[in-house]
Design goal:
It catalyses: L-leucine + 2-oxoglutarate = 4-methyl-2-oxopentanoate + L-glutamate; L-isoleucine + 2-oxoglutarate = (S)-3-methyl-2-oxopentanoate + L-glutamate; L-valine + 2-oxoglutarate = 3-methyl-2-oxobutanoate + L-glutamate. The protein is an alpha+beta fold. It has helices spanning 27-31, 53-66, 75-88, 133-136, 162-175, 218-229, 241-245, 277-290; strands spanning 7-10, 13-16, 34-36, 39-44, 47-51, 94-102, 116-123, 138-142, 180-184, 190-193, 197-202, 205-208, 234-236, 249-254, 258-265, 268-269, 301-303. The protein has eight helices and 17 strands. Bound molecules: 4'-deoxy-4'-aminopyridoxal-5'-phosphate (PMP).
Length: 304
């Protein structure tokens, strides 16, 4: 990833990709406190457009606020920088990764006196769970690793810290041949995927776990809005894994995973074992919105 042409926005400047380096004593590398985002820019008839730039930027700043990390730029600067990296790398579609992290001035757990740095990279990134996943769905396994308790790691923050738990879960199930992991909360209720929110469809209604132990996904919020517009009731509640086994349909949502049908959980086939009609309808509408083909929600897109 590091050895390629292009530019990365780094502390206010566009830096050649290969030179966007940081010191090995960077605090975040040692203690794991950093906050980041993942956004996508899609190709539209008017050019590349970033999906929900404002909401992702708000979440980045909220994540920093939760950890009392002071991002030394205002939101307008960070929003413009995200547009600029897509443009200057001449990308028609892209995955965008802003990250805020602490500098290398000192070791020890106190981060209050440290500098905060921001880097924003953008590159072309296809379907996260493989090209067939969006159509045929994926095989998911419940992980033996539990999602963080709300008082261990702050679930509202998209922090670097969360992802060690995600990697443990994902590598556990991947080594056993599954495509993605489902994590349960400390009480055994469904939380989310390693990098996705989850929905199920049962008798024409959509269910998703409430936000206690999962990230407040921006794709999740978009799907809730789209479902409401289609007249599909959405219920946020505690969900058990056997409810998923017996659902008519299930799918993951996320910026990287987009809308990915789940065809199997823990070796139980869900519904027809392929993308179901409600999932297909929401997926089509979602892609129409992100690609600027829908009449509604043009405000979700920011041209670069
Ligand atoms: N949960 C986790 C743990 C994630 O990493 C992500 C991806 N950011 C999501 C949910 C989905 O969030 P979003 O739709 O905002 O990408």
């Amino acid at each position: 990833m590091a050895d390629r042409d292009g530019v990365i926005w780094y502390d206010g400047k566009m830096v050649p990709w290969r030179d966007a380096n940081t010191h090995v004593l960077t605090h975040t590398l040692h203690y794991g406190l950093g906050v980041f985002e993942g956004l996508r820019a899609y190709e539209t008839a008017q050019g590349a457009a970033i999906f929900r730039l404002q909401e992702h930027t708000d979440r980045l700043f909220n994540s920093a606020h939760i950890f009392m990390m002071k991002i030394p730029y205002d939101k307008a600067t960070i929003m413009q920088a995200q547009r600029d990296v897509v443009k200057q790398n001449k990308l028609s579609s892209a995955y965008i990764r802003p990250i805020a992290f602490y500098g290398a001035e000192a070791m020890g757990l106190s981060a209050r006196t440290l500098s905060v740095h921001v880097a924003i990279a953008a590159w072309s990134w296809g379907t996260y769970l493989g090209p067939e996943a969006l159509e045929n769905g994926i095989r998911v396994k419940t992980s033996s690793f539990t999602r963080h308790h709300v008082n261990i790691n702050m679930c509202r923050a998209k922090s670097v810290t969360t992802y060690a738990n995600s990697i443990l879960a994902n590598q556990e199930v991947a080594l056993n041949g599954y495509d993605e992991a489902l994590l349960l909360d400390v009480e055994g209720y469904v939380a989310e995927g390693s990098g996705e929110n989850i929905f199920i469809v049962k008798q024409g209604k959509l269910y998703t776990p409430d936000l206690t132990s999962c990230l407040e996904g921006i794709t999740r919020a978009s799907i809730i809005e789209l479902a409401a517009e289609l007249g599909i009731p959405v219920i946020e509640k505690r969900i058990t894994r056997d409810e998923i086994y017996c659902a008519d349909e299930a799918f993951f949502t996320g910026t990287a995973a987009e809308i990915t049908p789940i065809r199997e959980l823990d070796n139980r086939i869900i519904g027809p074992g392929k993308r179901g009609p409600v999932t297909a309808q929401l997926q089509t509408l979602f892609f129409d919105c992100v690609k600027g083909r829908a009449k509604n929600h043009t405000d979700w897109l920011t041209l670069v």
